[in-house]
Design a protein that fits this description.
With 147 residues, this protein is of the alpha/beta class. It has helices at residues 41-53, 110-113, 121-133; strands at 4-11, 14-22, 25-29, 32-34, 55-68, 71-83, 102-109, 118-119, 140-144. The protein has three helices and nine strands. β2 and β3 (25-29) form a beta hairpin.
């Protein structure tokens, strides 16, 4: 089973997310994607930010291992080092495919994260709490059952 590597990018009180419309659902996800063979989780996270958002990032630290919908997802706090937000050219931006739905990079104010359908839910709650209480010293493990 392929591991997913994702990123948490916070700038100016806003969180970078992918807005998705798929199978009649409207939700938001953290940018990221599958880890390719021979690639570390960190390398995959950095590559996915370039593909999905059009930006280069630096890994600050690992934040969480999330077991979501039966799959492992590894999330990193990152900071932007270059590029233009919204200029991604990954395969998800190809010809529209209803099976995969739409992808749109957005900035969501942190105070709105907990009240929106951001997946995985428990990771979104962790991000919202971290702004008031800081990040845990060690990465947390989350079992998110709200798929």
């Amino acid at each position: 089973m392929r591991v997913r590597a994702g990123c948490i990018l916070i700038e100016d009180g806003r969180l970078a997310l992918m807005e998705r419309h798929r199978a009649g659902l409207h939700y938001f996800t953290f940018p990221g994607g599958g880890v390719d063979e021979g690639e570390t989780h960190e390398q995959a996270a950095v590559r996915e930010m370039e593909e999905e958002l059009g930006i280069q990032v630096r890994i600050v630290r690992k934040v969480a291992d999330v077991h979501f919908d039966g799959k492992l997802q590894v999330y990193f706090l990152v900071e932007k080092t270059g590029g233009e937000f919204g200029s991604g050219t990954g395969e998800e931006y190809g010809e529209f495919d209803p099976a995969h739905g739409t992808y749109r990079p957005i900035w969501m104010p942190l105070e709105e994260v907990a009240g929106n359908n951001v997946l995985p839910h428990e990771l979104a709650e962790l991000v919202a709490r971290s702004q008031e209480h800081g990040w845990a010293e060690e990465p947390v493990v989350i079992y998110d059952k709200k798929a």
